[in-house]
Amino acid sequence: MLNNWLKIAFINYKKNWLSTIINLFGLTIGLTGFMLILMHWNDEESYEKWNPKKNQIYGIQSYYKKDKGYGSNISIPMAERAAKLIPEVKDFVLFNSSGMGFKMTTKNKTVYQQDGIATSENFFNFFPFKLISGSFKNALKSENAVALSTTSAKNVFGRTNVAGESLKFNGKNYIVTAVYELPKENSLIKPEFIILAYEQMKNDKEAWGSFNYGCFFMLKKDADLVAVQNKLVKEVFEYRAKINEEGSGVTIEKYMELYGPNSCELIPLDKLKLHAKAYWFGNGDLQTMMILLTLSILIVVLSAINFINLKTAQASQRAKEIGVRKAIGSTKSSLVFQFLLEAFIICFASYLLSLALAELLLPSFNKFYDKEIVMNDWHIYFYSFSMVLAVTLISGLIPAMYLSNFKAIETLKGNFARSKNGIWLRNGILTLQLMISSFFIIGGLVVNSQVKHMMDKDLGFSGKQILYVNFSENVEKPWLKYERLKNELSKIEGIESVSFGEAVPGSGRFSNSNVDFRDKSINAQHGSMDFDYLQFMNVKLKKGRWLNPNLASDTIANVIVNEAFVKKFGWTDDEALKNEIRPGFDSKPYHIVGIVNDFNMWSPKTAVEPITFFHYKETTWKRFGVYNIQLKLKADDIDATVKRIKKYWQEKAEPGYPFDSYFIDKKFAENFVKYQKQQILFTILNAMVLMVALLGLFALSSLMIEQKLKDVAIRKTLGASDKALIIGLTKQFLWITLIAVLISIPISYYLMNEWLKDFAYRIDMPVLPFVLSLILLLILTFAVVSIKAYQASKVNLVKYLKYE
């Protein structure tokens, strides 16, 4: 019996070779896209899976009701109180700095080593790397202790067995207490060296408001997560509000409303990368992943719809076969299994082709996403094969049940071709297919419009020809180093001007604090800077004046704010210039002397945040945060100027340190890469969807028109013109297209509007994509169907009428 089924299957594949190729092509493309996106998803989900303690380690993300946002930072007293009063909390680890780099010196050589972190002493309790040399016990107990990775140990000492060796960096002598091997698996926490954040933690020991630390908690295995979160709010957040509100004249509730945090959520370590809304080591993009996975599944669904449509359209060709098989005793169940087998063969062949195609495309996919994915995860094969089985059932069972229900007498008489049930089923499935195609066209055009809008938007500053250079902060008075470098670099040929700004567009490096005015408080970013930095960046002054180096008050307690700052307080510009504010970064009041136009520093997706600009000498601790120098270059010979700067830097400014530099406009442009990739992917998926849909439409229209060739021959004999015949044959498909697009418009509007809500700078929903979708699908439908309709109009009359 199985042998007979296979023979029948391959006879039908050969007979309907066009629909067989279309089904293979569509399913192969759909499954390939699904596999690639699934591999991308699994790669994002695989971070920190190596850690044996991952099920007990949680990152904290705090919610600030006033700003409707999340933060990943915490203060030392808050973490210590949580560990002391909440029984479920066994331990905690703090992170103060990451991505650090130092020039390390031994007896034999000096090497610049980067990618270090400063943490609390119990780091290795949370991250048990493989120990190579030394001991993890008390490895970070001393302020002069350093743990090295095998890579950094080889860089500095030339070998890995270096526990007990001494080296010098950061102005101190250090002893190597441990050498560890970093995990080969995916992880965002791969420090090349680790030191104790001793000085910073010593200064912040009692500072409840110094939210300078990322934090992980280790909970007991049976801990109730919701209960721990509630205790954190009650025992830590409310307690902080209580001790801070004393003497301020506000209640605990009011204090939390003004300053937060108001609630929190604990996220498992291995979920932080993709699922956390705020994470010290950087977030993934769950929304984009969900969109891509959904779209890839839609393509597979579209291919399955093609399969169903073509199989049901071929019903009349197989009606007599089914009638004969039923007449000689075949049961309904055996017919269903036969048709399911035929569907499975196509799906399995597509699966094998998609595996090969995915392997071929994987290098390009890895390059696109800057990953190193390999097809060695069994989950990929399991889930993709499960998709094959699902497609087999969906695309095979419907036609199988449909065909197996034919009545033997009617099919043997040849009456099935005119069944209204068959027509309604095909038309309904075709409508669904065209709805999906319409959504992809609308979505693609909206995405293109949004990306173009962000790229064309006036950012409010000009970073053109401005070279940003990081310098080492490992000096006693970094602001004096900046002033020396400024004086010396100004003499280099090709440099037009020199300045410093803490808040640099595209850098992602910033600090913030509360700013109070009477009974109102907002959160604002810090913009310590040199006097001319805003002019240097071509930011426009809206009201008031710039900071003036000739006015002593401008180095004591005067600030410039942006428009967002004024709007957040609800002031007019004139009111703002009369007010004094109290920023959380200082104990004295500051007077607003100027207001600048908003300019975007972080991302084209995010709104401009309130920010205060002030001279770096105005606040004592801010002068220690002078960490860069920015150089505006003359346009005539930029390459030669950069070479002169690099030579000076490596020979005189910071010998032994890398020349860490970039042009600000190019760095900020990297913010657009993510959205440009989304645009490219949506365009590719759009093309795939249209190709699959149009090929399916062509095959379906071919089969349906072939069923009407006798009618065409009769009408042509009665005098119908070719034009009338073509219009008559295509009219049904055009009506289906029109109905499908009209149904898809409100669905597409809702989904794309939800996508646009994530953008602070967004377009208004355009009308053009909806109109273009309708026009384009009508044109494509007419073009595809009319090809076969034109061929039908040239039908051989004798062939179809000789027996009438």
Report on the architecture of this protein.
It is a single chain. The protein has 804 residues and is of the alpha+beta class. The chain has three domains: 2-40 and 287-454 and 673-801, no CATH class; 66-223, no CATH class; 466-671, no CATH class. Helices cover 51% and strands 18% of the residues. The chain has 26 helices and 23 strands. Strands 1, 2, 3, 4, 5, 6, 7, 8, 9, 10, 11 and 12 form a twelve-stranded mixed beta sheet that branches. The chain has a six-stranded mixed β-barrel with strand order 15-16-21-18-20-19. A hairpin with a 4-residue loop joins strand 1 (57-64) and strand 2. Helix 2 runs antiparallel to helix 13 (378-404) and helix 10 runs parallel beside helix 13 (378-404). The longest helix has 38 residues, at 332-369.
Q: Tell me the β content.
A: 15-25%
Task: Catalogue the unreliable spans.
Answer: none
Mean pLDDT: 83
Helix tally equals: 26
Total domains: 3
Q: In whole angstroms, how far apart are the ends?
A: 40 Å
Give me the count of strands.
23
Judged by helices, strands and strand pairing, the structural class is: alpha+beta
User: What is the rounded Rg?
Assistant: 34 Å
Helical residue percent band = 40-55%
Largest sheet: 12 strands, mixed
Note the overall shape.
elongated
Domain MacB-like periplasmic core: 20-233, 434-647
Domain ABC3 transporter permease C-terminal: 294-405, 685-796
GO molecular function, one term: transmembrane transporter activity
Keywords: Cell membrane, Membrane, Transmembrane, Transmembrane helix
